[in-house]
TrEMBL record, chain A:
GO cellular component: plasma membrane
The protein, known as: ABC-type sugar transport system, permease component
GO biological process, one term: transmembrane transport
Matches recorded under Gene3D superfamilies: MetI-like
């Protein structure tokens, strides 16, 4: 019996480890490749460790690699992304909280129907709003600007953030709101003094989810920006596809890692909340 | 529910608070969608041109060879990506459900790909599957001289590279959802089955997995919608190439609307994408919301 | 006009569901009103309306001389203790208690005085800095009451506050609530489904069923003269024994056995329009004797101070309540007797009590 159990466990662990290696492989490859110079690239292979690790590729990716016409590395695009992500995340989260609060505790006739219609926005293929949205941004004078991107991300993010907060607030006892009403609290007092202090978990989940999605977005970035407002994902793609004489894969890998680092770090530090965001959004209706 | 005797302010205040964002959001979704629909019926090329031409764009799509490739790829990629992600995800979830000590670490490893951009994924896998420098080169260096892996530049096989990268990115997500669901199962049902003498695989197959029907369903919906939207991954990995062998409707739309000056055609392809998504998602949302009443 | 007047309250949620079908109640200042009934009878809905958390479809509510029907909760000068206590999880006990005063912009010094007063009354002074999550069920209940007391309102509302406590705690807290009422003499409306709470706490009880008040009276009135079969069976545990009986000639018989009636009852039975009746006897009215109605003991449930004995008789199964532990066995043949004047008579079809 113990022997069978052991074989069971050995198979189990082998499978788990094989998969773990497969999942880790690209990260490992990116890392080792980014630490090599051209010589080591040629001599080595995907998995070989750098014989003489160097940060050359990293510096180049950050400051001097060519992304099409410009050769300033990813640095300007990194900051574009930051400027875009921070307001977009904060605004969409705040609006989602307010909407969720009203939809769960202050329902009115038609509110559920409106919510249902908004929910489709979570699943809709964004291709269908790209063309009209470029027109609108043009009219608003926001075409190819970071504020244009922020606007798009906020509008596209409201259905998701509303969903998260509404589902969470539905779990807050209605009697809490009733008691506060009896105590004389107004709509806003209940929101700021009672509901928001109890929202810490969902606020964190929503912030992480929005940050990850907006930072990682490429579609809106590539359609609605120009070289001045381009986010880092677009910059990375350009860098990777710039046809130079010799493709410097070490630089490309370093650039990929730079682009991935912010969301990866957040994931490692607060992964639990990231997970909660995934399950909250997907499984709930 | 809260049809209470309230001061006038409290009656319209909640509505006022959500009105702007709801209005804008719904306008963004449905207003622009309708506009795009209209564009698809016009003769727009590089610039929007509101000359109505009926279904001409859709007819053009119907006979467009590249669009055919894109739709066929969507089917192939869709089935393999969804099937593969779900199969691997469920398998990983079941494996991790076996009370592994390192569960936390392993779960973090399986799920981290979801935290990075599809562009990063595409870029990394492009390098790894690079004929000449990537996997092939590695195998040669390890002694497998005859190994060749030219899938990435082979028009027939390139789409499978996209599948591999896609599964790598999303299997962890499926795993996370199923693991949560498995954890939610009542322990006593499993104990009852064990007392009845069922073996562990039997218990999974006959009792646990069937009871996860709803989770299968909703995960399928979410992964399907990811498949249909796949744009970033293809752009980074193959840019739709070689040629347009790995085109998907999303890349087709982008190419025609924004780089080839065929707005009308691009808009039409977007509407087709919408139709496919709606066909899957709308029944799902409808049934979910009804059951919540 | 009493301290609380409820006039012709109707409530429908849609065209087909009528939850309250015309409620009229009036209580005096300082009285403790109980709303009791089975789930779905409308008692909680009625309480929500008194509280202002829900609006009636028609009818008026008066607190004192004021018509509060259209006033929001915060303007009614009431306080409520919820079933789940609804304490604000992110605030300390002290802040929970003072919150209503805080909202009304009562100065800090007064708020603190109120908190101290309440804490002393309920003996929760040592809990003031804790958060609700750190309290036990009984402590939370006291804090919830404290929050209501701090406001010093004209009307207290309780919505099944003891349902979430275990049996022993429930008995203790019941006594505390009663003592509190004796001290503060605030008019109170208390909703419960537990008839023991109703009887022990109430000055007046409104027994509700299907959206109507079945009977409104003092505990004594309700117990001794239940207005209909439902009230008779609902109040009192074990429930009243109900025997289908028929008027035959001048007598009342059940399953062939003649039931003795006193003069008043006999007259009422004779005068009554229908001959199909129900004969009711409370378990404590039955006693074991040397002679009387024969029966076989089928079950004995000793509770300590008394025992409930169920027996099979010619007129059906009866449950008797006798003091102490019963000196008999299941299966034994016994005789049971009762005083006819203690019996209750109801019309079998309408359930209404026969007018005596």
């Amino acid at each position: 019996m113990t022997i069978r159990l052991s074989i069971h466990r050995i198979v189990l662990w082998t499978l788990l480890l094989v998969f773990a290696l497969w999942f880790l492989a690209p990260l490992y490859v990116m890392l080792v490749t980014s630490l090599k110079d051209a010589e080591q690239l040629r001599a080595g292979n995907l998995l070989s460790l750098p014989t003489d690790p160097t940060l050359y590729a990293w510096f180049k990716a950050w400051g001097s690699a060519c992304t099409g016409v410009q050769c300033e590395g990813l640095q300007p695009f990194f900051w574009n992304s930051v400027q875009m992500v921070v307001p977009a995340v904060l605004i969409s989260t705040f609006i989602g909280a307010l909407n969720g609060y009203v939809l769960s505790k202050w329902r009115f006739r038609g509110s559920e129907l409106l919510f249902a219609f908004m929910l489709f926005g979570v699943f809709m293929p964004m291709q269908v709003v790209l063309l009209p949205m470029s027109q609108v941004l043009g009219w608003l004078g926001l075409a190819s600007s970071i504020w244009g991107l922020i606007l798009v991300h906020v509008l596209a993010g409201i259905p998701t953030t509303t969903l998260f907060f509404r589902n969470y607030y539905v779990g807050l006892p209605d009697e809490l709101i009733k008691a506060a009403q009896l105590d004389g609290a107004t709509f806003w007092q209940i929101f700021w003094l009672i509901v928001v202090p109890l929202s810490t978990p969902i606020i964190v989940v929503t912030l992480i989810w929005q940050f990850t999605n907006i930072w990682n977005d490429f579609l809106y970035g590539v359609v609605f920006s120009d070289s001045g407002s381009m986010p880092i994902t677009v910059g990375l793609n350009n860098l990777a596809n710039t046809s130079g004489v010799v493709k410097e894969y070490n630089v490309v890998m370093a650039a990929a890692l730079i682009a991935a680092l912010p969301t990866l770090i957040i994931y490692i530090v607060a992964g639990k909340f990231f997970l909660r965001g995934l399950t909250a959004g997907a499984v709930k209706g | 529910m809260f049809r209470t005797p309230q001061s006038k302010a409290t009656v319209w205040l909640p509505k006022l608070v959500v009105a702007p964002s709801f209005f804008l959001s719904l306008l963004f979704i449905y207003g622009l969608m309708a506009w795009n629909g209209y564009l698809s019926f016009t003769a727009s090329r590089i610039l929007p041109n509101y000359e109505f031409i009926g279904l001409a764009n859709y007819e053009a799509l119907w006979v467009n060879e590249r669009f055919h490739v894109a739709m066929r790829n969507l089917a192939v990629f869709g089935v393999l990506f969804i099937g593969g992600s779900m199969a691997l995800g469920v398998l990983l979830a079941i494996l991790l459900d076996q009370k592994i000590r390192a569960e936390g670490v392993l779960r973090t490893i399986y799920l981290y790909p979801m935290a990075i951009s599809f562009i990063v994924t595409g870029t990394a896998w492009k390098w790894m599957l690079n004929p000449g420098m990537g996997l092939e080169h590695l195998m040669h260096q390890w002694g497998f001289e005859t190994f060749s892996f030219g899938w990435l530049v082979d028009p027939q096989m390139a789409i499978y590279c996209v599948v591999i990268a896609g599964i790598w990115q999303c299997a962890g997500f499926v795993m996370a959802l199923f693991l949560a669901a498995l954890r939610g199962i009542d322990e006593s049902i499993i104990k009852a089955a064990q007392v009845d003498g069922a073996s562990l695989p039997r218990i999974y197959w006959s009792i646990i997995l069937p009871s996860l029907g709803p989770v299968f369903f909703s995960t399928f919906i979410v992964v399907s919608h990811l498949a249909i939207k796949s744009f970033d991954l293809v752009m980074a990995l193959t840019a739709g190439g070689p040629g347009f062998a790995t085109d998907l409707p999303a890349t087709f739309m982008y190419a025609h609307a924004f780089t080839r000056g065929q707005i009308g055609l691009g808009a039409a392809s977007a509407m087709v994408m919408l139709a496919v998504v709606a066909a899957i998602v709308v029944p799902y949302l409808y049934s979910e919301l009804r059951s919540k009443r | 006009m009493g301290a609380l007047s409820i006039k012709q309250i109707h409530k429908s949620f849609n065209a087909t569901t009528q939850v309250l079908k015309g409620i009229d109640l009036e209580i005096e200042k300082g009285e403790f009103l109980i709303l009791v009934g089975p789930s779905g009878c409308g008692k909680s809905t009625l309480l929500s309306m008194i509280a202002g958390l829900d609006a009636p479809t028609s009818g008026r509510i008066f607190i004192g001389e004021r018509d509060v029907t259209d006033l929001p909760s915060k303007d009614r000068d009431i306080a409520m203790v919820f079933q789940s206590y609804a304490l604000y999880p992110n605030m300390t006990v002290a802040r929970n208690i003072a919150f209503g005063l805080e909202i009304r912009k009562i100065p800090k010094a007064e708020r603190e005085a109120a908190v101290q007063r309440v804490a002393q009354m309920l003996q929760i002074g040592h809990l003031l800095d804790r958060k609700p999550g750190q309290l036990s069920g009984g402590q939370r209940q006291r804090v919830a009451m404290g929050r209501a007391l701090a406001r010093d309102p004209v009307l207290f509302l309780f919505d099944e506050p003891l349902s979430n406590l275990d049996a022993k705690l429930r008995v203790e807290m019941r006594a505390e609530i009663k003592q509190l009422h004796l001290r503060t003499r605030t008019t109170t409306v208390y909703v419960t489904h537990d008839q023991v709470e109703a009887m022990t706490l109430g000055d007046r009880i409104a027994v509700m069923k299907d959206g109507l008040v079945q009977q409104f009276g003092t505990p004594a009135q309700i117990y001794r003269q239940p207005a209909n079969r439902f009230v008779a069976e609902f109040i009192g545990s074990p429930a009243m024994n109900m025997v289908d009986a028929t008027r035959v000639g001048d007598n009342l018989t059940a399953h062939g056995v003649a039931l003795d009636l006193d003069a008043q009852q006999a007259q009422a039975v004779r005068r009554h329009a229908h001959s199909e009746l129900v004969f009711g006897l409370r378990p404590e009215n039955l006693s074991f004797a040397e002679s009387g109605l024969p029966g076989t003991l089928t079950m004995i449930e000793p509770t300590g101070p008394e025992s409930y004995a169920t027996l099979d008789t010619a007129i059906g199964a009866l449950t008797a309540r006798v003091p102490g532990l019963l000196n008999a066995q299941v299966g034994e043949r016994v005789f049971v007797r009762w005083d006819p004047s203690e019996a209750h008579l109801f019309d079998r079809h309408s359930g209404q009590r026969l007018a005596l």
